[in-house]
Structures
1.
Amino acid sequence: MFHQNLKSMNEEQLSNLKDNYAELIVDGLDHKDIYRIVFDYLRTDIDSATESELKEEIVDMYGEDKWDELSKPAP
C-alpha cells in the first residue's frame, strides 16, 4: 500500500497541507456553494444566541431600524 511510504510531517507542515487542501476545495466551489457554506456556518453560530443577544448585536451593527425590520412577524 502506498501510505506506508509516507513520512511523518511536523505540525507546521501538516497545517500547511491542510491550508493548501482547503484552498483546493474552495477553488472548486462556485459562488452558490460558497454562499450556502457561509450561510450554514453563520446560522449554526447564531443558533445559540438569545433574543436579547441578537437584538444587541443587530442594533450595534446595523441600527435600531434594521432590528425593527428583521424582528417583524412574517405576514
2.
Amino acid sequence: MSGGLLERDAGLDLERALERHCAALSACRACGDRVAGAIPILSTARRPRAMLVGQAPGQVEITGQRPFAGRAGKTLFRWLAQAGLSEEEAREQIYIAAITRCYPGASESGRGDRVPSAAEQELCSHWLDAELALIRPAVVIPVGRLAIDRFLPRAPLDLLIGREHVCELNGRETTVIPLPHPSGASSWVHGAGHKALLDEALALARRRLRPQ
C-alpha cells in the first residue's frame, strides 16, 4: 500500500475514533449539574495536526457549544492568526481540549471564572489522557497556568513562555509551546517584557504549524 493510502487510512481511523470519543464525552455528567446548563464542550477537529489545551470552558460556551467562543477566544484566535492560522483553520487543524470540559462557574471574587478544583481536574483527566493517546500530537499548546502545569514542571511563566519544551507523551517526544491565558482576568501579558515572550512563542508556533 502506498504512503498516501496509508496516511488516508490513518486519517479516517483517527476521524472515526475522535467521533466515538466525542460522543462519549458529550454524554458525560460525572460532575452532576453543578452549574445549570453546563455540559462538556467539544472540539470539532477530526484530523488535527496539533492540540491546544486550555483550563475550562467559560459561561458563553454553554450557549455557543464551541471552545473559546467568548472574549478570551477572540484574543486567543488573534494570537493564532499571528502564528499563521485563521480561526477557521485553527478550529479545523488544532484539537482544542481542556483540563476540565464544563463551565465551572464564576469565581467568588467576581473576576473571571472559578478555577476547577483538584477533584474536578482528576475526575475529568481521563478525557485528555484519551485524546493524547488517540491523536499522538507532535505539538501541544497549553494555554494558561493550569494547562501548562499538566505538561511541564512548575516554574515562573517568564521561564516557560517564549521557549519550546520537549516532553514524552505516550512514548513519543512532543514539542510543547506554552501560552499565557488570554482571559482579561490574567494580567501576565501586560508585565514588563512579557509581550516579547508571547511574540516569540507565537513565532515558534508558526514554525511548527506552518512549516515552510
